[in-house]
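Support request, please re-run this one:
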Amino acid sequence: MSDTVLPRGTLFDMLLNSSIDYAERIAFIYRSSDVEFEVNYQKLFDDSLILSKAFKSRKVQKGSKVMLLSDNRYGWIVTDFALLSLGAISVPRGSDTPTRELEFILKHADCEFLVIETEQLLKAHEEMLKGLKKIKAIFVIEGEKTHKWFDNIYSYNDILKDRSVSTTDTEDFISQRYAINPDDVFTLIYTSGTTGVPKGVLLSHRNIMYNVRTLPDLIDLQKDDSWVSILPSWHIFERATEYVALSGGCSIVYSSIKTFAADLEQYQPTMVATVPRLWESMYSKINQTLEKQNPRKARIFKLLVRISARYNYLRRAMRDQLPIYSKVFILKRLWQKFTAGIMLLLLSPLNFFAKKKLRLVQEKFGGRLRMAISGGGSLPSYLDEWIDAIGIRIVNAYGMTECAPAIAGRSVHCEVFGTLGPPTKNTDLRIVGEDGVSVNSGEVGEIQLRGEQVFPGYYDNDEENKKAFTEDGFFKTGDLGKLTLTGELVITGRSKEIIVLASGENIDPSRIESAITKLPFVSDAVLVGQDKKGLGALIVPDFDQLRNFISGKFEQNSESTEKLLMDKQVLNRVKVEINRMLHPKHGFKPFEKLQNIYFLDKEFKMGEELTNTLKKKRHVIETKYQEIISRLLK
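Re-run finished. Output below.
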């Protein structure tokens, strides 16, 4: 490659620049068949060039929509760069996508090509794919040579026979950058809609490059940073993280749920980006291991965490690093600082001891972790405090697919704990009440924003586009929040119906509730699980039908309604029946099954839990049954 530095306008430009600046640095570490491979930036460039050339020879061109159905692997990122180098539009999805949903996306997006991870995955969707006449070619990432005459299926082994790279190939590849503009769409990501129909989020190079340019400063990115990656590459949070890392010459280790803990210790990353569910898993694993080894040590560990967390809180109170929503009388503030100072002095010896011991826990994260980013859902306050107490700097981030994804984050420049930090650079964010007027600090309203990261709209969905934007061009997130006096954002709830699990998965409750209420003994149902590790449901039963159902399953039946509602055997049998309906063969995903259910003894009433048009007021219901939900999904 030439040593000429290219302008940073598109993702392809970013790849070209990183390949020049960091040619010999390791870009990716991954395993295949238990063999570890290291790929430097020059090879990433070469592999992307070779695949781009192969795609081009098979008529993939600017504007072509290409479904990329694959989980994390090195082949994913190479495919991604090969497609965007041609100006093609990737339509990414994970391997767990149900056939019915996949068919909808392929048709709605007008996909012309399909890249699929394995032959086994291709076989699973074979019958559906036969009916799609618009698909010109299917490419299998991992597979033997499969192409036959008059067949449109190719393995990468078929199309990558010639892996040589000439000077002309390099020049032609680089020259493709001139055909790509910042406002060109580079990807179309489908996210769940409130009606159960996925919505296609169009994202341009300008949207994602805003994140690539802005986020490194927020996390103080260093070129010698190493990342352990575990989230799905097609998810915009992980995808943006990988682009940011590559823009700075970092190395990325592709990990998995099974190997994540071991990989943290082996590769000793300086950075990780995870969702709350993984932090919950680490939290539980550490505590449970201690309980099994020595209950006394477990109690001491928890005490040390409480001491560290309390010390951190008091220190922040002294330094005005806690969220403030209204002005506090100066004498009251001085008294608060004075009492906090006294407590700090008393706790200092214990805190010194606690911090010293808690450094041992950091070894579980490799010992070099200087920063962790949590996104894809709200981080529960207890986890935020726990991570902080054991000495890991955490960036609690807020974003959406529609913003590619950054909206706000508690960066290295923000010390106000218990918040998401201020909006990202050049983001115009406001909190709006029901009347459409911006509210004061501390008041709750809908979060709306404008900025370079905001998507141009949903693909082929005029109705949703009208709902998504205000007349003056602000994107309506559907999330509820408030701002502190100093401008930090705090999420308080969701006005949209979409449930986001702690693992970052988006779930449309109406689709599942509709399935549940098909059962004769269910009058109504409300799905719950926001920021939890799994789903639960509040069930309003039809008691006569429920008794009929139970009498057919058990020899004995609870005589009273009260006993029927609390009978664990009945609850478990009903849950099994519901989860049978929520099976993948019916188009549902594995994480959409219910962990627990709870029978309500009263129907929802108009004017209370229901609107005048009988729509459920989810926030009213969730507030009313808050304690029950907490017990349901511990």
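Residues 2-6 have pLDDT under 50 and may be disordered. The first strand starts at residue 26 and ends at 32.
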